[in-house]
Design goal:
The complex is a heterodimer of chains A (611) and B (304). By secondary structure, chain A is mainly α. Helix content of chain A is 71%, strand content 4%. The N and C termini of chain B lie far apart (38 Å). Classes of the chains: A mainly alpha (611), B mainly alpha (304). The interface between A and B is large, with 88 and 90 residues. Strand 1 (498-501) of chain A pairs parallel with strand 1 of chain B, so a sheet runs across the interface.
């Protein structure tokens, strides 16, 4: 083991360093947060175990992005998956954790199987496990093999990233882990899959066929839409965030796919710009999703529930958490002046700039992708109005929410750090983008020395010579100035004072939390207009006391989990069925088993003889 | 810089007039003798003088939202190339940024509506976010068409001297439909009633009164002005003024105003001749707008 570390088995190029930085940025506040989060939640021994697992998890992720040997990479990848599995099932109290862990461990191994297949194909060609030798060998790899390797890698890393329809595990596993781990999983772990794609597809293989880029783009667009539509339907706040991670991975992959597309078309400048947009969204998502999960964890810690329908009014009992959540919600809804706004603008701009430089049919394709990204943005804003509004505003809907207390300092510190970063990433966008240009250049194999994406230290300019600018600092300044002016006008203008009174209730005089809009009610218009996909159904049940009198009436509304019902359940049934069939060859006779071993041995000898 | 500030002031001063004008035209078409076109100003003055009622359940979000809304609309306004060559803050953002800035104001208004704990507020908030999220892709494709036509998403580039093409007219029509939705006009919403069935924007601001309501209304006027101005710029493109004599500038101003009036007349005509749609028909309505914007992209690709 020691020998391994002393050999040159690491590759610290800008790509690796970038991902290490992302891991560090989210791990630090999560670790600080966990000090008080774990206290009181678990027994002393379990708390220590949780801390150990967290450290192992962070270390595994750091190793994944920095090793330079395929075999070692796989080992680290597996350690990362296993440690995170233990963290998912950490809350053994809940039946759900075990189930979530099961789905997670199966899906992650299906993904790893694809990766192993891809790496073996690469090895048979390169006869080496070293990244650099594989990269060199790939120059002479036949096109057909490259296509197969690409599909295998996309499926393997896609499972980890949560690309639809391989996202199935993500909304189960992420919310089930302790909240600081959720923030690490959603903020960082799924990004290691993006690292894998960049490292092995862009850096190693190079884009070889025209269809690679569009395939990633189409998958990414579907992922965005499906993720956010499911997020909108959710009433469990952590699952809502998990589904929104699916959406954001889609946005990141839009940048990556676009970059692959332009690489094939030999447009280096656009390829680098698109990848910068993707990478910038990656770091932004790590920051604000980390923040949102920590906030959701604080809410859970203070109230004991993740169900939004039981929350409400927390802005009064937990004012600071509310502010941090609001910052995260604004950032993820791409509202100026926070960071999500800048990276989503850049992604859209990459589409628009790209469309100016391609042929007609492709223009329409890019336009529709961009429009669907805009739709995703609109739905995301609606989703986070719901998440913040229902959880933190109006009157508390339950006793737990009413009696909530603000969380202790270490938890607030973790959240404050990330909230601050959302603003820093936005105001310092130009600086960050200059660094990202180098990272994107390494990933694409392009010299970015002569490229410039900014007008000056505050103003972004995607294409030189074009008068398209964006400046988050300027916008922030304008917003602040006008806000201040508005405040002055407000205080000066009217002599009329403000009085406090009941909310208008049509003269009913009994307005309480039951009159408030709920999360389910809020999402109803969306549920109806997307019913072709969500397939909502109702279940009503009347309990009759007598022939004339109904004692109680229950009414439930659900949406059909399309992917589970039409893809995974039939698949599972098939596997069980074939397992039952397979059992016939296991009758319990030792002679027969010896026969099997003998036949296997013979076949292996014949098989090995071929080499 | 002075001219820029004067421009913004002029815009802010004129914005309510557009709304007054629309209701004036509507009243004329309906053969009614209605309020004066300056009624929005009287309303604002009245609201500023009135006592304000703030709900007991409301938090600071409710109190801060009007400021955020007005600040975001004014920020959007300074990006626009109103009368001079470019907006005073041209380098702060482009047409795409405008979409995001609009959604900032909307986000806070929707939160403030949830904040009071009334069912009306929740209803308005939910509906508003629903409609706007469906309007967003249309807006994006309109910008896409313009970008294909003029090679840039810069607002000033779109507003420069250019020939009117089929693509830009169709794009402007799609934008017109979006504008009806975004400014709470009739087939989508109704500014004139407080009936639950039609409540979208009005339901969101139901709890507001006094100066805060004045702020929100002012912001709505400014947003309407910006959208009308964009449509006018696309359909009636004109060269921007070279600073000549005073009379020349006056002539330009007159032409600018005339174009806005034409858009206002179109809105008024739609409002008196179409019935309010049921909420779930709005999805279809914006679906048509989406198809229209795809046609616009196709026309731009064909070069017509």
């Amino acid at each position: 083991m020691l020998a391994f570390f002393t050999q040159h088995n690491f590759l610290f190029d800008p790509l690796a360093l970038f991902f290490l930085a992302v891991i560090g940025i989210v791990s630090l506040p999560s670790a600080v947060y966990s000090f008080s989060y774990l206290k009181g939640e678990y027994s002393a021994g379990k708390t220590r175990l949780a801390s150990c697992l967290m450290v192992a998890f962070i270390a595994a992720m750091a190793l994944v992005v920095s090793v330079s040997n395929v075999l070692v990479f796989l080992v680290c990848w597996e350690i990362m998956s296993l440690v995170s599995y233990f963290l998912v099932v950490f809350d053994t109290k809940h039946e759900k954790s075990i189930q979530a862990g099961m789905i997670y461990i199966i899906m992650t191994h299906v993904g790893t199987a694809f990766l192993i297949a891809a790496f073996m194909l690469m090895y048979t060609h390169a006869h080496s496990f070293d990244f650099l030798s594989i990269k060199n060998a790939c120059l002479t790899m036949p096109a057909q093999t490259k296509n197969i390797v690409f599909v295998l890698l996309l499926a393997g890393f896609g499972t980890k990233a949560g690309i639809v329809p391989l996202h199935i595990w993500l909304p189960y596993a992420h919310p089930q882990a302790p909240s600081h781990i959720s923030s690490l999983m959603s903020g960082v772990m799924i990004k290691t899959a993006v690292y894998g794609l960049l490292r092995f597809v862009l850096w190693t293989l190079g884009v070889q066929a025209f269809w690679w880029g569009p395939v990633v783009l189409v998958l990414a667009t579907i992922t965005c839409l499906v993720g956010i539509i499911y997020a909108l339907m959710e009433r469990d706040i952590k699952r809502l965030l998990a589904y929104s991670s699916v959406e954001n991975i889609g946005i990141i992959l839009l940048g990556v796919g676009l970059s692959m597309f332009f690489l094939y078309l030999n447009k280096p400048y656009l390829a680098v710009f698109a990848l910068i947009a993707g990478l910038f969204h990656l770091i932004n998502h790590a920051v604000f999703k980390g923040l949102l999960f920590l906030c959701a964890g604080s809410v859970y810690k203070a109230t004991g529930t993740r169900d939004m329908e039981k929350l409400g009014g927390l802005i009064r009992t937990m004012p600071r958490t509310a502010v941090y959540f609001l910052v995260g919600a604004m950032a993820i809804s791409a509202l100026p002046p926070f960071n999500g706004f800048v990276s989503e603008w850049m992604t859209l701009q990459a589409f628009f700039l790209g469309a100016l430089n391609v042929t007609a049919g492709v223009k329409l394709f890019l336009g529709i992708c961009a429009a669907l990204l805009a739709l995703t943005g609109g739905l995301a804003a609606a989703c986070f109005v719901k998440a913040f509004g229902i959880t933190f505003l109006a009157q508390p809907r339950s006793r737990y929410a009413k009696e909530a207390k603000e969380v202790p300092l270490p938890m607030r510190l973790g959240m404050f750090f990330l909230a601050l970063l959302t603003l820093v990433c936005s105001l310092g966008a130009v600086k960050i983008i200059r660094i990202l240009a180098a990272v994107a250049g390494v990933a694409c194999g392009i010299d970015t020395g002569g490229m410039s994406f900014s007008f000056n230290a505050f103003i972004l300019q995607p294409q030189l010579g074009q008068r398209v600018y964006l400046s988050a600092p300027l916008l922030a300044m304008a917003l602040a100035l006008f806000g201040l002016a508005g405040f002055i006008v407000y205080t000066v203008a009217g002599k009329g004072k403000a009085v406090s009174y009941r909310t208008w209730d049509c003269g009913y005089y009994k307005l309480d939390a039951r009159n408030e809009y709920t999360a389910t009610a809020f999402s109803k218009p969306f549920r109806i207009s997307f019913s072709f996909f969500l397939l909502p159904y109702r279940r009503t049940q009347k309990i009759w006391e007598s022939f004339y009198h109904v004692k109680s009436f229950t009414y439930e509304t659900h949406t059909t989990p399309v992917f589970r019902k039409y893809i995974y359940d039939p698949l599972l049934k098939l596997i069980f069925k074939s397992a039952v069939t397979m059992r016939r060859i296991q009758p319990g006779s030792i002679h027969l088993y010896l026969g099997y071993i003998f036949v296997t041995l013979l076949l292996l000898i014949v098989f090995m003889g071929q080499f | 810089m002075l001219i820029a500030i004067l421009n913004i002031l002029l815009l802010v001063a004129c914005a309510p007039l557009v709304s007054g004008l629309i209701s004036g035209i509507k009243n004329n078409l309906r053969m009614r003798r209605g309020q004066s076109v300056f009624q929005p100003y009287y309303n604002l003055a009245k609201l500023c003088a009135k006592e304000e009622v703030v709900s007991e359940t409301a938090s600071w979000i409710f109190k801060a939202a009007p400021l955020v809304v007005i600040a975001s609309m004014l920020t959007a306004a300074v990006l626009m190339p109103w009368c001079i060559v470019a907006g005073p803050l041209r380098q702060a953002g482009d047409l795409l940024a405008l979409i995001f800035i609009f959604s900032l104001g909307r986000f806070f208004l929707a939160l403030a509506a949830l904040d009071t704990g009334s069912s009306f507020g929740g209803m308005g908030s939910s509906r508003e976010m629903f409609i706007s999220s469906l309007a967003e892709p249309v807006f994006c494709l309109v910008v896409f068409t313009l970008s294909l036509q003029f090679g840039s998403t810069d607002i000033a580039a779109v507003s420069g001297m250019h020939a009117v093409s089929v693509a830009s007219i169709i794009a402007a029509t799609a934008l017109f439909l979006v504008t009806l939705a975004e400014t709470a006009r009739v087939p989508v919403d109704n500014q004139e009633t407080h009936l639950e069935l039609t409540m979208v924007h009005e339901a969101m601001v139901l709890e507001y009164s006094g100066r805060r309501l004045a702020f929100i209304e002012m912001a709505a006027y400014i947003k309407q002005m910006i959208l009308f101005f964009l449509i006018a710029q696309i359909i009636f493109p004109i060269a921007l003024p070279v600073f000549g004599g005073v009379s020349e500038i006056m002539l330009w101003l007159l032409w600018y105003a005339a174009r806005l009036v034409i858009v206002a007349i179109a809105v008024a005509l739609v409002e008196v001749s179409v019935a309010k749609m049921r909420l779930f028909r709005v999805a279809d309505f914006l679906g048509y707008a989406f198809v229209l914007s795809i046609v616009a992209v196709l026309c731009a690709l064909l070069g017509v």
